[in-house]
Here is the input.
Amino acid sequence: MEWILEESWREKLKDEMDEPYYRNLVEKVREEYENKTCYPPEDKIFNALNLCPFDKVKVVIMGQDPYFNPGQAMGLSFSVPEGVQLPPSLKTLYRALGINLNGINQPSGDLTRWAEQGVLLLNTVLTVREKQANSHRKYKWRLFTDAVIKALDAEREHIVFMLWGRIAQRKERFIRTDNGRHMVLKAIHPSPAVRRKGEWNGKEHFTCCNKYLNEHGIATIDWMVVSEQVDE
Here is the structure.
């Protein structure tokens, strides 16, 4: 199966995709998909980039690697398809937003409508073997996602980068924040451990993000859209 990549991103990353490591990555990952169960589905590997073209990006939320349980990963960090039970990390985000998780009608875990507003929901590693976290980290996806961040930093301004956890925060070195060029917001990863330690320390990121966007004349993000009924 060909991995379809949105035109604007293909143009920005064309040199990266000619690099030997990337060609080797594609070969190895395709072999994995042929012989093992891997996630997300192959046609969703570049879902984050395909839903959020280069010039539309307002916010980047960095994840780690895709969910490794059946039916969860959909190529968007922290997101699961409509109707799938919310994973703990996404519940943490929803609690921070004040979205009710105790009612009869549960919010959708599908963050596509965030992506469509300009939120790039990008994992550091874009594929994973079933039940084996970080199993595709060795294929150097990190270099490819580094290139994504570098391109945004170089050619765009006033993007908010939300870096949650040690792995995501490694991208900070590629982001310039001098003179307000971009904003970087950092917190611990919203993992299940957060619930044991208390309130997640990234709770204010959503408000800070919209304040920054508004100050620069950029339309803000409706973070609460996931709590609404999805149209059929």
